[in-house]
Design a protein that fits this description.
mainly alpha, 4 helices
């Protein structure tokens, strides 16, 4: 779940040259290519839940206020060209669906 927050921030804010809503440490811990490195405390889980909601709420506000006007185009590793925030949000949805499937499979194992 932390990875989903980090990727959302990268795709939406970083690519638009805006400050991230998460700390540099959080980004480093959950950025693409990272791996889980320990056990999360109850406080960590509470913080993550708070970030999942607050970053999404702020993204909606910022999108409605059109703050993503300076978006840098990029290509995904799947070959998709992302040229603006709307493309970014579409790719973000795809990315979250991929991880949702993994999370569901892991939950079934537990």
């Amino acid at each position: 779940m932390g990875h989903l927050v980090a990727v959302q921030q990268g795709i939406c804010y970083q690519k638009a040259g805006l400050p991230l809503l998460i700390s540099d440490d959080f980004l480093k811990k959950f950025k693409p290519g990272s791996k889980p490195d320990g056990i999360f405390s109850e406080d960590d889980v509470v913080h993550l839940k708070q970030l999942l909601v607050s970053t999404l709420d702020q993204l909606e506000t910022d999108y409605n206020n059109r703050v993503f006007s300076n978006y840098t185009p990029w290509s995904t590793r799947f070959g998709t060209r992302v040229t603006n925030i709307d493309d970014g949000l579409e790719f973000l949805s795809f990315h979250e669906k991929l991880h949702s499937g993994t999370i569901t499979a892991l939950k079934r194992l537990v």
